Amino acid sequence: MTLKKKVIRTENEWKQILSPEEFYILREKGTEPPFTGKYYHHHENGIYVCAGCGNELFSSVAKYDSGSGWPSFFEPISYDNIETEVDYSYGMKRIEVKCASCGSHLGHVFNDGPMPTGMRYCINSISLRFKKID
Ligand code: FE
Questions:
Q1: Ligand 1: distance of its center to the CA of 52 in Å?
Q2: pTM given for the model
Q3: Measured between alpha carbons, how far is 7 from 101 in angstroms, rounded to an integer?
């Protein structure tokens, strides 16, 4: 296992590099409205990296249409690249998904996904940047 470089920034530093919308979702655990994100209907081959730090998070190979309104993946590129945490906000028990490198909020993971994992990583488009692979 490789030791990942951690990205640590102050709140003010984050505000300087992120838009207000990005700051709200990545650093304040916000959620973009469903069916609005730029990657919900996005089918190019490539990888999705963290909008906060560039950490490689999800591959287009694991992307599928969940019908949820958010980009959905059945697995991350590496389980070392994400972190999960129990989230009790809004009166629900959910599992939050965060970037393991910079701690930014990505979305949540649910156990109603397709095979081979049965998992649905439900991720905000705003938390991601797409890198095309030809
Ligand atoms: Fe990150």
A1: 5
A2: 0.95
A3: 6
pLDDT in tens, 55-108: 999 999 999 999 999 999 999 999 999 999 999 999 999 999 999 999 999 999
Q: Which residues belong to the active site?
A: 122
Mean per-residue pLDDT, 43-51: 97
Locate the domains of the chain by residue range: 11-132
Q: Which residues surround ligand 1, an ion (CB under 5 A)?
A: 50, 52-53, 55, 99, 101-102, 104
Q: Separation of 112 CA from ligand 1 center, angstroms?
A: 25
- Per-residue pLDDT at 1 exceeds 80: no
Q: For residue 57, give Cα distances in angstroms to 5, 88, 89, 90, 93.
A: 14, 24, 24, 26, 23
- CATH domain 11-132 topology: 2.170.150
Confidence of residue 39 (pLDDT cuts 50, 70, 90): very high
